[in-house]
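Q: Convert this sequence to structure tokens.
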Amino acid sequence: MASKMPPEVQRIVDLTAKHNKWRKKETLNMIASENVTSPIVELVYLSDAMHRYAEGMPFKRYYQGTKYIDELEVYCNELMSKLFGAKYVDCRPTSGTLANATVFHVLGKNGDTSCIVPLPGGGHVSHSEYGIMGALGIKPVPLAFDEEAFNIDVDLSRKIINEVKPKFIVLGASVIIFPHPVKEIKEIAQEVDAPVIFDAAHVLGLIAGKVYPDPFKDGADVVTSSTHKTFPGPQGGVIMTNREDIYKKVKRKVFPVFVSNHHLHRLAATAMTAVEMMYFGEEYARQVVRNAKKLAEELHARGFKVLGEGYGFTETHQVLVDVREQGGGAYSAERLEEANIIVNKNMLPWDTPDMIKNPSGLRIGVQELTRIGMREDEMIQVAQFFEKVLIKKEDPAEVRKEVVEFRKNFQEVHYTFKVDTRELADKLSLGV
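A:
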């Protein structure tokens, strides 16, 4: 019989258990930058590799004891290369931001200028003066943005690019409901000899599933990404390119500049997620977009101001809602959380800096609901929950009871391989 646990241990276990039960069993997780990994991915993630170091490149390490980790890293890169059509892949960055940092550092230097998606248009903070771009001393100049179409204004951006002559251009965003015009911007970028980076963090799984345009086919020189949003893997980053000249510089910058040890247990889990996407990605991605469109339509029908109305609302996993009439983004997100619906407040293009604590919008993602088996009919029910909390002003505590009951029907991860987790755990020597 195990000895009694100290109170400190018990508290850690209790808090972890409460979190797991709440987020994995009782809530509707609709944060657009999150997802849930499958049981098989979780099992290979929980490996001895989490204790180990492997600085440097495969088979050229500064430590011994990495022969299987080396093989895993090479195989992970090969799988990602096959999935995304990239000749060169580096999975060592431990986040999408560090993937961006590496490429920015390779393509620019202190005092240089870049062109980016503006923050009010959904651009990621790592692209901005407030993030790694600014920390590297590179000045970001926003491209022109069409608020109604919620996308880059190509014609006006042409003037900016030709005037600024940036060292590189960054597309992709943390708020993205319609595909960015990579092909059109690439044509302009060639006039000033500027490489185009596409930050695919939010849409990587949709690219894998062939429902979002392939940025390489549209001319992107580099694709950076995280590996844990629509691509439902472990948290981490990746850099992909077909340009050998860029890759040679990238691999020398990841280590030792931005990463020492690259969290080796991620490699098998990322590789396994890539295989899942090869087998199930197209079906999964199509359902994600169908669910997002259905949710947007249902919210609109219930009186919400959903962005992109004249353009079909969305072509990704995201739905954007202007909730100023419902009390603002912060108020609305807090009310929904009381009902066990997890979303995030978000600034919209017309918001001013003083609105950062309570911006106009909500950013909603359906990729995790899709992953646990929800389809269009469930989006109708989800929209009804939003309506009850934010428009009808019903007690969130009462709606929470309905949400918990509704969630009971969706407890398994879909679009993955069915495995005997105990048998696999034994094979992996996890002792679970």
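The longest strand covers residues 232-241.
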